[in-house]
Design brief:
alpha+beta, Beta-lactamase, 2 domains, four-stranded mixed β-sheet
Length: 528
């Protein structure tokens, strides 16, 4: 007992000595005599390919308010009539609080103003790509915000006001306010492959031309996505309101699968040319074709007569490509589709995938009628606008298949890449001669065929229209999607441009003019 008591007393003496000699109580007292008010938190920046910020481009003013009579008098007139009851409740409480103000000429004891960035613009570039924050800004919930949430959080900053309080926790009215700015000037973040100017151009052209749809601009040589827009858009600053809408604004239509229609004829033509079928291969179009007892008709029951591959693309003759596909082994068509990126998903960022679309099974294509549907993009075939941009890039890029890239890398200083995301080497999947022939045929479609409305003012272009039947009815009428897929300029193609208008009816009348507007806009940007 004596030894135990002696040991306990020794430990007690050591503990008292430790407390006396350390700063523990001093630190505890300091914590208990201070009140921290979080004024604002920021996140790392999302940049375009030229290190132009795509977020944090505008500012609000926030007031850190100490409840004093002077603060109440100065701020009361700055508060809207409907917000005054809530303001009065907060100003009469004992704790400091934060409020947004419009008037920056407020000078009063207990009011400190701060200029803080607003995450999203009123007209935000690439909202479907960037994504949005969770409730109460609790981390990224979608898009790049979610894919790089950890990095963007680490590269964020914090603005905090510190007030002195008494033993009861009441703020001392005569005390000083200490402002803490942590990592406020940090420039780290994510660098995208997008070009902000091209992105805004694509958004404007798409919004002016259709109500629902998507458009993609891809760099042919690398697969870099320079612009990728989807409409309608959601409000990143009011996600709750967007959830109640019926036009599905959260769907990124640029990476969603849709019926392809006649733009798929380009793939069939490429397969035929690779299998030594001449571009001058003839077919007599009577307006319909009988395949195994099933009748397939040309669009609007048109009768084209004797035509070759060039004219068949110009007038988008269904029976020509149905007849052509019957002469080919369907596994060759499927293989070329897969090499071009159709039927498989792409990872655009960590955990951020596109839809895969759909290709019919080989067994389905062994049925002549199934192959007939497949040959002009009908039936079960689905593709995303991004996938069709890959197809066009292959045809316009000397037969080299590219992989889409959305993220260029990570930056720590806002000027250079500290970690880059690789550009995957392009694969040669069709011969240069086939690619050259298809470029010529696609240019003819714009210069002399159904793609005339897509012709840019300068530089020329090549492309293909499509009016894709879906088999879905709305108001006793079949929904038909409008497509235009092409490249720009004609001589040395640099950009693959795909326009998709959901329920747009006519690729020639609806999607092609949007293609022209985008091509003309890119030309103007290059002139600048």
């Amino acid at each position: 007992m004596f030894c135990v008591i002696t040991l306990l007393m020794t430990l007690s003496i050591y503990r008292i000595y430790f407390i006396d000699m350390s700063d523990y109580l001093t630190a505890a007292a300091a914590v208990q005599s201070n009140y921290d008010l979080d004024v604002a938190r920021t996140r790392g920046t999302i940049y375009d390919r030229h290190f132009v910020p795509m977020v944090n481009n505008r500012y609000n003013y926030l007031a850190a308010v100490l409840p004093t009579p002077q603060a109440a008098t100065a701020l009361l007139n700055a508060v809207e009539e409907e917000d005054r009851p809530a303001f009065l409740e907060r100003i009469t409480a004992a704790k400091p609080f934060v409020m947004q103000v419009q008037d920056t000429n407020i000078y009063a004891h207990g009011v400190d103003l701060f200029r803080v960035p607003v995450r999203y613009d009123e007209v935000q570039a690439a909202p479907h790509v960037i994504g949005y924050m969770g409730g109460d800004a609790a981390g990224g919930a979608a898009g790049i915000e979610k894919a790089f949430d950890e990095l963007l959080t680490e590269q964020g900053g914090r603005l905090r006001a510190n007030y002195q309080v008494d033993a009861a926790g009441q703020v001392l009215q005569g005390g000083t306010v200490e402002v803490s700015r942590v990592n406020e000037e940090a420039a780290g973040g994510v660098v995208l492959s997008l070009d902000r100017d091209i992105q805004l151009l694509v958004q404007d052209a798409l919004s002016a031309g259709c109500d629902k749809g998507a458009a993609v601009v891809m760099e042919i040589a690398t697969g870099d996505i320079l612009g990728m827009a989807s409409i309608p858009v959601f409000d990143q600053n009011d996600i709750a309101a967007s959830l109640e809408r019926e036009d599905a604004p959260f769907i990124n239509r640029a990476v969603s699968g849709y019926n392809i229609g006649s733009v798929f004829k380009l793939v069939v033509a490429a397969t035929a040319l690779e299998n030594n079928v001449s571009r001058y291969h003839q077919h007599t179009c009577e307006g319909y074709i009988d395949v195994g007892g099933q009748i397939f008709r040309c669009n609007n029951h048109a009768v084209h007569g004797s035509i070759d591959m060039e004219r068949a693309l110009k007038v988008s003759c269904n029976t020509y490509f149905i007849s052509l596909a019957q002469e080919l082994d369907p596994q060759y068509i499927l293989a070329l589709c897969e090499h071009m990126g159709l039927g498989s998903a792409s990872e655009l960022a960590p955990g951020l995938y596109t839809q895969s679309g759909n290709l019919p099974a080989l067994s389905e294509l062994k049925n002549p009628a199934g192959l007939a549907n497949f040959s002009f993009g009908q039936g079960s075939s689905l593709a995303t606008p991004l996938q069709m941009a890959q197809v066009v890039s292959t045809l316009a890029g000397d037969g080299m298949a590219v992989s889409p890239r959305l993220v260029s890398g990570v930056t720590m200083d806002g000027h250079t890449l500290s970690k880059s995301r690789p550009i995957y080497a392009a694969n040669k999947i069709i011969s240069s001669r086939t690619a050259q022939t298809l470029r010529e045929l696609m240019i003819a479609v714009i210069e002399e065929g159904s793609g005339k409305p897509a012709g840019p003012a300068q530089g020329g272009a090549g492309g293909k229209t499509s009016s894709a039947q879906t088999g879905q009815m709305q108001d006793d009428k079949e929904i038909v999607h409008a497509w235009f897929a092409g490249f720009y300029p004609a001589g040395q193609p640099r950009y693959s441009i795909v326009v998709f208008c959901e329920g747009g009816e006519s690729g020639e009348k609806v999607a092609a003019p949007i293609f022209k507007q985008i091509a003309d806009g890119i030309c103007a940007l290059e002139d600048q």
